Amino acid sequence: MELTMVGVGTRLGGRWVVDGVDATPPAGALAGLLGPNGAGKTTLLRLVAGLLEPQAGAVLVSDPAAADPTPSVPVHALARRVRARHVALLEQDSGAAVPLSVREVVALGRIPYRTLWGTDGDAGAVDRALAAASAAHLADRAWATLSGGERQRVHIARALAQEPQVLLLDEPTNHLDVAAQLSMLAFVRDLGVTSVAALHDLNLAAAFCEHVIVLSAGRLAAAGPPADVLTPALLREVYGVDADVLTHPRTGRPVIALTGQVTPPP
Ligand SMILES: Nc1ncnc2c1ncn2[C@@H]1O[C@H](COP(=O)(O)OP(=O)(O)OP(=O)(O)O)[C@@H](O)[C@H]1O
């Protein structure tokens, strides 16, 4: 599915926290959404998910592979059920203590597919999503008893159960140990679904993302392949850090080597 942001902006608390962002994450691949704290990543994901209506510009979706390709439509204009079958958002730390089992939490992702009688045409969808997120062994546990990393896997399973064509993830590697971070991002990268993940770890973004979108104070600072975008000059300008960017000797991907120096703002 094609996802296009055209001049997207919104004001919150009296100022533009996302301001005129143009971006087209590559279809069927994983894009990283980067930027310092407060740069507008979560707000942009909420705009892309249609949870916030842009006050400027639009987020458009279209599916060129569909038998009857629909013209690009603004996400926020889609009916809620239709939108939920297109776009899933994994929010940051959405860990309320609900009295549900893991299987019931993942089944929440199937609500957009339920008929008026409450039945779901695809009885295996919850089990498939649990297995894909390496959470099948947790299926009968009470949600409230899970660790942070286990919850994160279940959140992914719930988003997968939604079978979205666009998957949005806000810091999906939070709470995960290093091996689980790598597996999570490799898994999302290989899904073949247009995915956008807000990430703080620049090396994870450089290793797993085909494309990165960098925000700075609500505006687009740069976008493109990590090797082109993540330059020492950009890291200095956007994050205020001093770094060298090396090439990994085996993977050929960029590696950001921080010197430990924080540079004064320009
Ligand atoms: N409801 C709101 N009312 C007022 N200001 C808001 C609101 N929501 C977010 N903001 C502000 O908008 C800016 C962008 O916030 P956002 O959460 O999108 O940033 P972020 O890049 O996701 O940050 P972080 O990396 O810290 O999670 C911040 O300055 C934040 O304080």
UniProtKB/TrEMBL annotation:
Alphabetized SUPFAM superfamilies for the sequence: P-loop containing nucleoside triphosphate hydrolases
Pfam families cross-referenced by the UniProt entry: ABC_tran (PF00005)
InterPro entries in UniProt: AAA+_ATPase, ABC_transporter-like_ATP-bd, ABC_trnsptr_F420-0_ATP-bd_pred, P-loop_NTPase
All residue ranges annotated as the ABC transporter domain in the record: 3-242
Keywords on record: ATP-binding, Nucleotide-binding, Translocase, Transport
Coiled coil: none
Keyword Acetylation set for record: no
MF annotations from Gene Ontology: ATP binding
Name of the molecule in the record: ATP-binding cassette domain-containing protein
Native source species: Cellulomonas wangsupingiae
Record lineage: Bacteria, Bacillati, Actinomycetota, Actinomycetes, Micrococcales
